[in-house]
Amino acid sequence: MDHLGPPVWAREAVIYQVFVDRFYPGRGRDWLQTADLLGFCGGTLWGLVEKLDYVTDLGATCLWLSPIFSSPTHHGYDATDLYHVEPRLGGDEALRALVREAHARGLRVLLDLVCNHISHEHPIFEKARANPASPHREWFTFDDSEIGYRTFFGVPSMPQINLAHPGARDWIIDVARFWLREFDVDGYRLDYANGPGPDFWTDFWTACKAVKPDCYCFGEVIDAPDVQRHYAGRLDGCLDFYAADALRRTFARGTWTEADLARFLARHQVFFPANFLMPTFLDNHDMDRFLFMARGDKDALRQAAAVQMQLPGPPIIYYGTEVGLSQDASTAGYGLHVSRTPMIWGAAQDRELLAYYRDLIRQRRNRQPAPDHEDARC
Question: Which of 112, 220, 283, 288 is catalytic?
Fold first, then answer.
């Protein structure tokens, strides 16, 4: 491959985002609890294996998993071991089974990887913090601040990795290669990608493509479009936060007209290179759910989803949006976790909305041209 870029399958993908602890317990288990959204609810990778037919029946072709690495929290964005799956979620065996069963159904699997920071309980950080002579001391930035070291947005439990240090840089890139090589995952959603910055991603991206040329690596860069464009040629794409905001302004909040939206999209889509693939979304795990923002108006959700499915970037569906999952109004303004409501199943699902989503996805996939040949990669 002479030129790195997003694989053909990613251009045609419909991505289903699963927050693993909140999706399905599996193996005959019930939820541990569902009231405390900062606690563990009991979803597992085994549960997701049991629900793969639901995902494929929806029409999704790719899974994006919330972080599955060993971690003390429900969200997993603070890993204590980047080479093993959290036992609470099913451990390494469950991920191997999930990837195997997903691939058998034609589903790709993306992991959510944090390269910017780890947990303060990670053994490497604990040793570096305790011993100034530790060989890993320079993998972090210790200082005279109140916390004593550089962190992710001042959160003491999330020390930032000094990716300018060659050893730390090689460590994180090795982690990425490991999961591609040993577990056959299909790429990464890269959390807080503007933390490490564009230079790091050049090395990261080329290393991933060397292991698995058709992997898909896209970043979470919540910044101005001109900043996001700096990642072209360094990653396959970035999450399209500006399109998400435009869709929410138009259909959830009603502060934009559809003409406003059309004018924005016309400018927005030509601003980025054609080979920079930007997934679209209506909601995710860090924001209020679309249906909550729309005050329960499912017609507004249908309108937004219809527009999303016509945009060029691969659409992401946050688990439950397709069946009317919302959030508790009493939790408004109480943190990022409020949209991480446990998935609803059975009679609690809005079957008409689900059928609408299935039809939208079918129409989108029917509009897409077939690749020139079966082995097309980039």
Answer: 220
